[in-house]
From TrEMBL:
Quaternary context: Oligomerizes as a right-handed, spiral filament on DNA at oriC.
Gene3D superfamilies membership: 1.10.1750.10, 1.10.8.60, 3.30.300.180, P-loop containing nucleotide triphosphate hydrolases (3.40.50.300)
Domain of life: Bacteria
Keywords attached to this entry: ATP-binding, Cytoplasm, DNA replication, DNA-binding, Lipid-binding, Nucleotide-binding
Residue spans of biased composition, Low complexity class: 119-137
Entry comment, domain topic: Domain I is involved in oligomerization and binding regulators, domain II is flexibile and of varying length in different bacteria, domain III forms the AAA+ region, while domain IV binds dsDNA.
Protein name per the record: Chromosomal replication initiator protein DnaA
SUPFAM superfamilies for this protein: P-loop containing nucleoside triphosphate hydrolases (SSF52540), TrpR-like (SSF48295)
Upper classification of the organism: Bacteria, Pseudomonadati, Pseudomonadota, Alphaproteobacteria, Hyphomicrobiales
Organism whose genome encodes this protein: Microvirga thermotolerans
Compartmental location: Cytoplasm
Chief place where the protein resides: cytoplasm
Binding site for ATP: 208, 210-212
Pfam families: Bac_DnaA (PF00308), Bac_DnaA_C (PF08299), DnaA_N (PF11638)
Amino acid sequence: MYRSEDHRTFAAPSESGVEASGEQNAAETWARVKRRLRAELGEDIFASWFGRLELDAVIDGCAYLTVPTRFLKSWIESHYTDRVLTLYRAEAKDVERVVIGVRSTVGRDAAAMRRPVEAARPSAAPGAAAAPAGAPATHEPKPAPAAHQEDRSDAADLGGAPLDPRLTFDSFIVGRSNALAHAAADRVAQAPNGQAIYNPLYLHAGVGLGKTHLLHAIGHAVRAQGRRVIYLTADRFMYGFVASLKAQTSLAFKERLRGIDLLILDDVQFIQGKQIQQEFGHTLNALIDSGRQIVVAADRPPADLESLDERVRSRLAGGLVVEVGALDEALRASILTTRIEALKAIHPTFEVSPNVISYVARAITANGRDLEGAVNRLLAHATLTGSAITLETAEAAIRDLVRNREPKRVKIEDIQKLVASRYNVSRSDILSERRTAAVVRPRQIAMYLSKVLTLRSLPEIGRRFGGRDHTTVLHAVRKIEKALGEDNALSDEVELLKRMLQE
């Protein structure tokens, strides 16, 4: 529970003067920031991208800004976030970061969170449910199972995102790289009597490798059992909490969130703000302590979520942490085949030979979304030209997906973190003087990758590995090079680490 002095901008009604003053000061500061933006970028650019950018709240040094569309959010985040922050800090030194959300989500959350409070007022008739504003008094909802009605109510009140009907366990393609994650997700979804196991279940992977698919699949399976499920992205969780503070319904928000059977939270790496992280930690503790299941996904292991509070990271790491690995060639071919067969039900003349499927599976190695894009391009070529798909036409159709991209700049720190995570040691172990076999091999692999993937000299690499001599690095590089020629399993492992670092 937060004390009132922790968020004076959202004070209780008895402090309305303080609240109004705080909001007025924040609004005046934001007006000055917008004037700076207009002067620096020019009227045309400002009107195109910033005219509808609004300030929603300032909490714990974070300015929460909103725009009306996801496109605007994505564009500003990609091109102007740093500039906005620089100009904001010129006007308000206490603002350390900015977060941009979609305004429609905030509005729904704020309006929805008023309903539980209004329903609980003494003036309401005993046993009567509060009807949504604007609903006809004589309208009676269609009968539905109580659990599903309550589930939809929870989703509306908390701004929960809908589950994608396509993303189920039946449509998930299992391969060597994701078998463990699939098995863990299925076990959680089928737990008897709603018993929480592997709590929390934490899935992490890069973009397009299937972690979100598994989250939705779990949600569908649990909801089919009549249990209450909420699926939230980090963005929706943050803005739901901010909106509840502004509407002075934060207690109702917390109680609704903690009253569900399964909380699914995606992209947890984006959760920011001290108060929001504290509330997220309190929610984790409350749900776990009451035996409710939590499933979380992120793009990295809990230990690497450096922006998250240490206690939250520890709580996330206390459950089952599973990585969804990179798609191997056999799995990529299976995904392509399954997708093509599904499209043939709609386009009976769409035929793709095994040779073409094999070529595409070899050429596109990044993620499942690129594979989906490749199939769509092949379908477009076949339906628009009426010609058969050959290796030559396939190569032309997917050229943009396999074009030579500028290699990602890999940092030695990233290599050390990834290798440490992969081999279940700590980064401090790799930098230490320990010489046990469990530490020496990962350290040598990390040195080898640093030599291969960066432009650093051997002496520089040695300094970055605990101040070691360059001859130590050279010995490690030569030893791993020799081992790679003799050990196919190690060769595959190191190649996978290279791909993960370069993606």
